[in-house]
Amino acid sequence: MKIAIYSNLGESSNIVATSLKKKIEESPDLSIDGLNPEIVISVGGDGTLLSAFHHYQDISDRIRLVGIHTGHLGFYTDWRDYEVAELVDSLEHDNGQSVTYPLLDIRVNYVSGGPADYGLALNESTLKQISGSMVADVYIKDTLFESFRGDGLCVSTPSGSTAYNKSVGGAIINPTLNAIQMAEISSINNRVFRTLGSPLIISPDEWVKIVPKSSNRTILTCDHQIISNEAVESVEYRISKRRIAFAQYRHTQFWRRVSNSFIGKVNLDD
Predict the structure, then answer these.
(1) pTM check: above 0.85
(2) pLDDT in tens, 218-266
(3) If you average pLDDT over residues 59-83, what whole number do you get?
(4) How far lies 104's CA from each of 7, 67, 161, 232, in Å?
(5) pLDDT mean over 98-118
(6) DSSP characters for the chain?
(7) Residues annotated in the binding site, as ranges?
(8) Shortest CA distance to 126 belongs to which of 209, 247, 224, 47?
(9) How far is CA 167 from CA 16, 25, 254, in A?
(10) CB burial string 108-139: b at 16+ within 10 A, e below
(11) Rounded-to-integer distance, Cα 91 and Cα 88, Å
């Protein structure tokens, strides 16, 4: 089986990546292949895994990801830095087991009239105003839903619902649900301006279209990376037909993962 190792530049991650590479090269059943891997192992934290996903995005339908955690908090990472030997043993006994999560399709139309841009997000995409309040019409399918005024809008996947979406007041969605979510970022609600003020859960047969009124001052992000500062005419978000796959040698149950990440160990004696 062909394996790629994608590590951040931290000292602890480099130590783990070096140890992992050595053990893989010693295995008769495994080999290192950074160009056409079957398994991509991320060494670091969730940010490293996001970078690994985007690095291999063009072949994401042919790979499975594994995360080794070397930092403080890893939501996507099932393995710890001291479990390299156990992971290599799981790789040697791989039988194709996996769990898949929904991804977010992003289609951007520019004021310049050029061809539409397409993107893919594992966590979320945001549309924000550089300065002042963003004013935008929000459509669900082809129907105008509301006129938004505020700092911006965040559209996330279920697995990304625990990331930036959560910090702006969005709901946490189990990634077994095939849905996307739109959450408002500091919306303005008073007698003059009014939005729903609640997160929206969008079903597989629906999509969200955002049309900013002052398109020359917006910034579009994908997984916290700026993907465009061109004048945006509209952005359309849908559930992607593609999904991300994680090798399921070990996979923490979703709500336990949420509890461990944000609440910690619960002491029932208190």
Answers:
(1) yes
(2) 899 999 898 877 889 999 999 999 999 999 887 677 888 888 888 876 5
(3) 89
(4) 24, 20, 12, 18
(5) 90
(6) -EEEEEE-S-HHHHHHHHHHHHHHHH-TT-EE-SSS-SEEEEEESHHHHHHHHHHTGGGTTS-EEEEEE-SS--SS--EETT-HHHHHHHHHT----EEEEEEEEEEEEETT--PPEEEEESSEEEEEESSS-EEEEEEETTEEEEEEEEEEEEEE-SGGGGTHHHHTTPPP--TTS--EEEEEEEE--SSS-----S-EEE-TT--EEEEESSGGGEEEEETTEEEE-SPEEEEEEEEEEEEEEEETTS---HHHHHHHHHT----TT-
(7) 46-47, 123-124, 149, 151, 162-167, 225
(8) 224
(9) 31, 42, 19
(10) bbbeeeeeebebbbbbbbbbbbeeebbbbebb
(11) 5
Q: Average model confidence (pLDDT) for the chain? A: 91
In this predicted structure, the answer to whether residue 101 has a pLDDT above a threshold of 90 is yes
Residues forming the active site: 46
Whose structure tokens read 């935008």?
136
- Specify the amino acid at residue 211: V
- Two tokens, residue 90: 């799981």
pLDDT at site 267: 59
The full DSSP string for 177-207 is S--EEEEEEEE--SSS-----S-EEE-TT--
pLDDT at 129: 87
Binding residues for NAD(+): 46-47, 123-124, 149, 151, 162-167, 225
**Ordered structural domains, the chain, with CATH:** 1-96+247-261 (3.40.50.10330), 101-241 (2.60.200.30)
The CA R_g of the chain, rounded to the nearest whole Å, is 20
